[in-house]
Structures are given as structure tokens and as C-alpha cells.
């Protein structure tokens, strides 16, 4: 209740701070011409800045060299004109007032500079990896080898991230990562990240941000950090793109279109995709009682599945004046990813006597979907950087699982057992959020201090339901199906999260930077097993501090130190008690009684850049997680393994990573990512401990030929995983691509070859626990070829620099 009143007080404060001010605006016009030929200079950049150099907005000149900047708040500004092959030019003072609301600066002469042109060709290439202070950015659009692939191909290139061949994602050895798409959560990412990143097309990804020490404005979710996948956005104007990919493992078709007027902007995008998953698994598990073997289970399975899905997004922005924006957006994901397989299973005693020997044909499908609606208002002020916003979001996520099993003896074609299961679940989520940003400057005798204060409140309500039933026929006949009440139930779950934050950022002219903040989150949980009339409740609150200190030397050397805490609420599908019996010897289920994790993370980082495009980033980190969640297995006397997530105790990671990027000339780009960490896991309750080194490295090379040709090669090799109950072996991949631009770079054709000399990649794993030891061998088909055609159409310009804001629920979400 105290937090509720605190929220009301904070919100009232925000509203008072957001009182409207004058919206009287003016306009600046003019034209750009070549100083020698007097011909117009089309598509040049015109930037409107404050007198201290901060960008306010910008446009580009039209085909006749003319430009017009609309809805400028009265005041004094400077104009900067830039274009490739011309020297930059600046007009130091242009004043708009009530007496002079329209200013025509006339004709501006731009002077050609061939030397500048050659420099732009070298420096203008964006580096593959950039350090943005609070985050590391991987510019995916600069990497041709991922064209036509999936998000998994992109994330394998990103420093500090590792994606195995089954799609499992980890950051610095930890799988507890919050994945955002354009700064907000995606239901498919929350539900099952491993499958999601294998289905999301790489063509739509512009960049990936890795945030290892998130500030107070981010939800406290994600122990290892936050990954933000930025999708490509159309520029202002009327323009768009179309993409078509054909291949043996990946296929997709999609595009986007953007139309923007003076006050109204509309953007739409659609994409449909297919992903093929081929592989096989073999395992051998020995059950133990008091350390002595009692039975041996040998299994083999194979799969060949094609998943189909798609998504669409629409956003509508309305600017009633230069200081306000109202935004409405809607998006939808959906698809069906089957996981059909053939399973052979044999259980025998240690003396060799066969107890069970059967084959199972498993038809497993997972139709999923998500619809989301955002409505928001953003209020800017005359003072650059000051902002107030009110955002709301509603999303609905049906997420269903169905499987059908036909079991026959190994040497028979007559079924002896049938089973079918249905899990129908949904998640309705409502979110309200309001934020306020207030910048100010202080001048001292020796320095200039720039400050930014941010604060906000947020409320999330999640209502989740899951109804699961299992029918079985012990005779193998369809007519004998009957409900198994012991394995069926109805589960209802409600989660409410109320939070507030305040953060403070200071930058000095001497290149010192300090960020400090705190976030308070209160969580209330109610669970109800309707069929068995069993309920449970849980509530907890957390105060999450964050601190980041940085210093830049000689304009290009930066050292940073940071500390933060993170909380990890169990994902909804970690909690869902639905039991997957598709493999009767390996049963999986959620755990509704999980407690949240709390992580302490410290990092020291260094970065530097060269004018020729080279860069170097390195970091040392330490991370400790209390109440760590791990998927654990136990084997009973019948040789059946039950796997469920549990709070094991403590896990810790220590290590470092670095990225180096070199551009010896304008044709060559070379980069190398590497990471090394030591992971230690300990469970006092289970009296188990495991530790070991984890490392990985990924090189990347590209070369630009004349006539818009480019080739690129990349690869990865990693050491595998370490968990409380086991370890997996290392694996690798390599790829080459060739890209050709034509029709004035509007059209692009890209050919990709992945693992051309190896059809499959093999991994091994070992598990151990007081009740069993096991070994497994997996083969993944990873050799593929794909051809992608992309075409851009329409006109593009800088347009309005304002960005629409949306809710960003960077905490747990989704259902299973």
C-alpha cells in the first residue's frame, strides 16, 4: 500500500513537471548550390543545432537543393551543411522570434573537396563492433555472412555471446539473459529463446546491443545482462524494402514500407519464414542407488522438421506540434514449430536382461502467437533533452502444446500403447509506465558539468492460465482412449510487479562520466491448481542499485568501472507444472515454487579507437548469483528421469573478453572476438559442485572488390558449457559469402555457404548426479546454402528526428 501511494505521488509530480509551455514555432528555408558550377546540391544534410552543438533536428535538401525545417521553437540556433565530396559549412547564428517566425537564409555555396571525399570513403564505414559507453553494439547490417540466415547466425558473431547448435544462448557463460526486440520484450523470445532466435530472420536485424551493466531505468530482470535486438527501420519519406531468401535450411520473404507527412507517419512491415531442423541424438544412462548401478537405458532419436511462421507490425505517429508526439502501434507474431521425432528406447538390468524395448513415433507441435498494442504520449520541451512520457501496453499470448504418441515393440508394427496430450495456455498482460527526464548544466571555475536526472514508475499485471490433459490407451487401440486424471490439471497464475526508479548521470568537459541510480521492485504472485484446489502465494521486494564510472583520455581511450545488482524472476514456463511425457524415460516439468535469483555483477572495461576505423574493447568481470536456478534431473528406481528447474544455491563466474577490429585500408575489414570465463556452481542441499573454464573465439574477414563486389568469411569455435550436473563438448561453424550490389545499390544479391565441407557437427555431453551418470552424442546438420535478393525503393531523407517511445518490459514473460 505504501508503494501504491508513493506511485501516486510520483505520478502527480510528473504531471506537474509536464505542464504545457508555449508551442509557438517558426521555419527556416534556403537552398544549397555548388560554388563553382552553381548547380543544386541534392540530398545534402542540413543539421539544426543549439549554440553549444547539440542536435535539435535535421533534414536533407531535395532534388533542386532546396530545404525547409519546420516547427522550430523560437530561439537562436546554428546550421551545419554537410555532403560527401564537399567541405562542411556552418552558419553560427540564426534567430527565430515572434517578430521573425520565418527565416530564409537564401543560397548557401558549398565548396568541393576531393581530399575530403577520399577521407569519407575510409572513415565513413561503420565499425562492425562499437562501444557506446553503456553498451557494446554489433552492427549486423555490415556483415554479409548472415544475410538470409536467422537471428542465431547474428548472435553468434556478437562479443560476449555464445549460441550453440541447438540455439541455446549464453552471455559470459550464463544463460540468464533478458532479450529485447527494439527495446521491448517479445513473447516468442520470453517463451523459448532457443527456438525463437532460430526462427527470426537475420534480414530484419540492424544491430545487436549488449548491455552488461544495465542502469536503474531498465527493469531489474536478467542476471547476466540485457540483449537488445534492433530491427531495421525505414528512413523518413516514402520508401521501403523487399527481401526474398531461398535455401535448403532457411527460406523467407518479407518487406516494409514507410510513409511520412508533416504531422502523420505510417510504417508497416511483414515477414514470413521457414526453418528446417535436422539431427539425431544418442544417449546411455546408468541409474544408481547408493552409488551402485541398477539399470542401463540406451536411446536414439532422429528428427527432420520444418517450422513455419510470420509476423507483422504497424505503427502510426501523430505530431500535433514540434513538442508533442502521440504514437499507436500493433504487432503480431505467430507460427507452428513441430518437434516430431522417432525414438528408440531400451532399458535393461546391469546383468543384460531387457526390461523394456520399444519404438515411439512422436508428433509434437507448438502453435504459438502474440498480439500487442501500444499507445503512448511523449512531451518534449524547449530545453533539449527534457522529456515526459506516458506509455501503455496490452498483449495477449496464446501458447499451446500438443503431442500424440504411438508406441510399438521394437520388432513389431502393432501399437501397444497410445498417448495424446494437450496444454492450452494464455497470458494477458497490462502495463502502465510514466517517465521524466530533466537535463541541466552547471559551470565551475575549472570545468563544465552536464547532468541528466531520470525517474519513473511502472505497473505490470499478468494473468496466465494453463489447462493440460493427458489421454492414454494402454491397449494400443484408438477406441480405448481415457483421461488420466493424475496427470491432468488446470493452473491459474497471477503476477503483479510495481516498480519505481531514479537515476543520475553526470558528464564533465574533462571527459569524466558518472551514472548512479536505484530501482525498487515489488512482486506479488498467486498460483492456483484449480483441479486439485491447491493454492500458493508469494511476495518479495528488491532494491537494485547501479553505479558506473568512466574516464576518457586523449579523446579515444576510455576506462569504465561498474557495479549493479540484478533480479531474475522465474519465467512463466519455468513455473508451469505441465509435464511432458512424450519420452516416458525423460519427463520434463516446471516448478511453481521457484524463488527469484539475485545477482551481483562488477565489470572493468577499456576501449579505444583509431581514425582509420580500428577499435579495441576489453573487459574483466565478476558475477555471483544467489538462489541460482538450474534445470536438474533425478532418476528413480524404474530408470525414469524427472527434469525440473530448482534453486540450487550459488553460482559464480569470473573472466574477461575482448574484441579487436582492424581496417588496414578501405577494402579490408578484420575483426576477432574472444572470451574466457571460469564458472563455479555449488548446491549445499544436493551436496553437488561443478566448475570449469569456458572459452570461445570468432574471427571475421571481409574484402571489397571493384564494381560493388564483396566477399566475407567468418567462423566460431567454443569449448562448450558447464552446469551443476554436467558438461558438454565444444563445437564450431564457419561460413563464406559473396555479395553484389547493382542498380545504384538499390538491389543486392548475396550467396551464403555455411560449413560447406562438413554436413554435420557433432557434440558430446556428460552428466552426473547421485542417482545417475549419462553420456550423450548429438549430430546437427549445419551445412547449408542460401541465396538472398533485396531491393530498396522510394526516397529517403532525415526528416523528423523525434522517436516514438514504447513500453519495455525487460522482465520475465511468456508461458509454456
Textual characterization of the structure:
The protein has 6 helices and 47 strands. The protein is mainly β. It folds into 2 domains: 2-116, Sandwich (Immunoglobulin-like); 238-424 and 433-774, Maltoporin, Chain A, CATH 2.40.170.20. The strands form 5 sheets. The chain has a 32-stranded mixed beta sheet that branches. Strand 2 (45-49) and strand 3 (55-60) form a beta hairpin.
Mean pLDDT: 82
Helix content: under 10%
- Level-2 CATH architecture of the largest domain: Beta Barrel
Total domains: 2
- Dominant shape: globular
What is the CA–CA distance across the termini?
32 Å
The major pleated sheet works out as: 32 strands, mixed
CATH topology of the largest domain: the name is: Maltoporin, Chain A
Output the CATH class name of the largest domain: Mainly Beta
**DSSP summary, beta strand count:** 47
User: Structural class, please?
Assistant: mainly beta
Number of helices: 6
CATH superfamily of the largest domain: TonB-dependent receptor, beta-barrel domain
Strand content: over 45%
Query: Can you tell me the residue ranges where pLDDT is under 50 for at least 5 consecutive residues?
Result: 1-23, 114-125, 796-801, 812-816
Provide the descriptors you would attach to this structure in a database record:
816 residues; disordered C terminus; 6-stranded mixed beta sheet; globular; Immunoglobulin-like; mainly beta; 32-stranded mixed beta sheet; 6% helix; 6 helices; disordered N terminus; receptor; Maltoporin, Chain A
Amino acid at each position: 500500500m505504501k508503494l501504491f501511494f508513493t506511485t501516486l505521488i510520483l505520478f502527480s509530480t510528473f504531471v506537474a513537471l509536464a505542464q504545457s509551455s508555449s508551442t509557438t514555432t517558426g521555419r527556416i528555408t534556403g537552398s544549397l548550390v555548388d560554388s563553382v558550377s552553381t548547380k543544386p546540391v541534392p540530398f545534402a544534410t542540413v543539421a539544426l543545432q543549439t549554440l553549444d552543438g547539440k542536435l535539435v533536428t535535421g533534414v536533407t535538401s531535395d532534388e533542386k537543393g532546396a530545404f525547409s525545417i519546420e516547427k522550430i521553437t523560437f530561439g537562436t540556433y546554428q546550421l551545419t551543411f554537410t555532403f560527401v565530396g564537399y567541405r562542411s559549412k556552418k552558419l553560427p547564428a540564426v534567430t527565430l522570434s515572434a517578430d521573425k517566425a520565418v527565416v530564409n537564409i537564401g543560397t548557401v555555396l558549398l565548396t568541393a573537396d576531393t581530399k575530403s571525399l577520399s577521407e569519407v570513403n575510409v572513415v565513413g564505414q561503420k565499425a562492425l563492433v562499437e562501444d557506446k559507453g553503456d553498451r557494446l553494439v554489433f552492427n549486423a547490417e555490415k556483415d554479409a555472412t548472415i544475410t538470409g540466415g536467422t537471428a542465431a547466425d547474428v548472435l553468434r558473431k556478437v562479443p560476449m555471446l555464445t549460441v550453440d547448435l541447438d540455439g541455446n544462448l549464453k552471455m559470459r557463460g550464463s544463460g540468464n539473459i533478458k532479450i529485447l526486440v527494439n527495446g521491448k520484450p517479445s513473447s516468442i523470445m520470453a517463451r523459448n529463446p532457443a527456438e525463437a532466435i532460430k526462427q527470426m530472420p537475420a534480414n530484419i536485424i540492424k544491430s545487436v546491443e549488449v548491455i552488461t551493466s544495465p542502469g536503474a531505468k531498465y527493469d531489474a530482470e536478467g542476471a547476466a545482462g540485457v540483449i537488445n535486438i534492433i530491427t531495421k527501420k525505414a528512413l523518413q519519406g516514402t520508401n521501403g524494402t523487399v527481401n526474398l531468401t531461398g535455401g535448403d535450411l532457411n527460406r523467407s520473404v518479407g518487406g516494409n514500407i514507410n510513409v511520412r507527412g508533416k504531422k502523420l507517419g505510417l510504417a508497416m512491415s511483414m515477414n514470413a519464414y521457414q526453418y528446417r531442423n535436422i539431427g539425431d541424438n544418442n544417449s546411455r544412462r546408468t541409474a544408481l542407488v547408493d552409488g551402485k548401478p541398477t539399470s542401463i537405458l540406451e536411446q536414439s532419436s532422429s528428427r527432420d522438421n520444418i517450422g513455419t511462421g510470420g509476423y507483422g507490425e504497424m505503427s502510426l505517429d501523430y505530431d500535433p506540434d514540434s513538442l508533442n508526439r502521440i504514437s499507436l502501434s500493433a504487432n503480431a507474431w505467430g507460427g507452428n514449430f513441430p518437434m516430431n521425432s522417432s525414438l528408440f528406447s531400451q532399458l535393461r538390468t546391469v546383468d543384460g536382461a531387457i526390461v523394456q524395448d520399444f519404438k515411439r513415433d512422436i508428433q509434437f507441435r507448438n502453435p504459438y502467437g502474440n498480439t500487442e498494442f501500444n499507445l503512448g504520449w511523449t512531451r518534449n520541451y524547449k530545453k533539449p533533452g527534457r522529456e515526459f512520457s506516458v506509455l501503455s501496453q496490452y498483449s495477449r499470448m496464446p501458447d499451446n502444446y500438443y503431442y500424440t504418441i504411438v508406441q510399438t515393440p521394437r520388432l513389431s508394427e502393432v501399437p501397444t500403447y497410445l498417448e495424446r496430450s494437450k496444454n492450452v495456455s494464455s497470458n494477458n498482460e497490462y502495463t502502465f509506465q510514466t517517465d521524466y527526464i530533466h537535463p541541466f548544466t552547471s559551470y565551475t571555475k575549472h570545468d563544465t558539468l552536464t547532468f541528466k536526472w531520470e525517474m519513473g514508475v511502472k505497473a505490470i499485471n499478468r494473468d496466465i492460465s494453463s489447462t493440460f490433459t493427458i489421454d492414454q490407451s494402454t491397449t494400443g487401440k484408438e477406441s480405448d482412449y481415457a483421461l488420466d486424471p493424475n496427470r491432468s490439471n488446470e493452473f491459474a497464475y497471477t503476477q503483479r510487479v510495481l516498480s519505481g526508479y531514479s537515476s543520475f548521470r553526470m558528464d564533465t568537459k574533462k571527459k569524466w562520466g558518472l551514472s548512479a541510480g536505484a530501482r525498487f521492485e515489488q512482486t506479488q504472485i498467486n498460483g492456483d491448481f484449480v483441479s486439485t484446489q491447491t493454492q500458493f502465494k508469494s511476495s518479495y521486494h528488491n532494491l537494485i542499485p547501479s553505479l558506473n564510472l568512466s574516464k576518457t583520455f586523449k579523446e579515444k581511450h576510455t576506462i569504465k568501472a561498474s557495479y549493479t545488482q540484478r533480479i531474475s524472476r522465474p519465467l512463466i514456463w519455468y513455473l508451469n507444472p505441465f509435464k511432458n511425457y512424450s519420452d516416458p524415460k525423460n519427463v520434463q516439468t516446471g516448478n511453481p515454487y521457484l524463488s527469484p535469483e539475485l545477482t551481483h555483477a562488477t565489470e572493468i572495461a577499456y576501449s579505444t579507437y583509431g581514425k582509420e576505423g580500428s577499435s579495441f574493447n576489453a573487459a574483466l568481470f565478476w558475477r555471483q548469483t544467489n538462489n541460482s536456478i538450474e534445470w536438474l534431473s533425478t532418476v528413480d528406481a524404474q530408470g525414469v528421469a524427472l527434469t525440473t528447474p530448482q534453486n540450487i544455491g550459488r553460482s559464480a563466474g569470473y573472466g574477461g573478453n575482448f574484441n579487436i577490429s582492424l581496417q588496414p585500408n578501405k577494402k579490408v575489414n578484420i575483426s576477432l572476438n574472444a572470451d574466457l570465463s571460469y564458472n563455479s556452481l555449488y548446491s549445499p542441499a544436493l551436496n553437488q559442485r561443478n566448475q570449469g573454464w569456458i572459452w570461445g573465439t570468432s574471427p571475421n574477414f571481409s574484402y571489397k572488390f571493384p564494381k560493388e563486389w564483396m566477399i566475407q568469411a567468418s567462423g566460431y569455435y567454443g569449448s562448450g558449457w558447464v552446469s551443476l550436473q554436467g558438461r558438454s563438448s565444444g563445437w564450431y561453424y564457419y561460413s563464406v559469402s559473396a555479395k553484389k550490389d547493382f542498380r545504384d545499390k538499390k538491389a543486392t544479391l548475396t550467396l551464403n555457404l555455411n560449413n560447406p565441407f562438413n554436413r554435420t557437427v557433432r557434440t558430446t555431453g556428460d552428466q552426473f548426479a547421485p542417482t545417475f551418470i549419462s553420456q550423450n552424442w548429438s549430430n546437427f546438420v549445419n551445412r547449408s546454402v542460401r541465396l538472398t535478393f533485396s531491393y530498396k525503393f522510394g526516397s529517403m531523407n532525415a526528416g523528423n528526428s523525434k522517436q516514438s517511445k514504447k513500453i519495455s518490459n525487460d522482465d520475465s514473460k511468456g508461458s509454456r
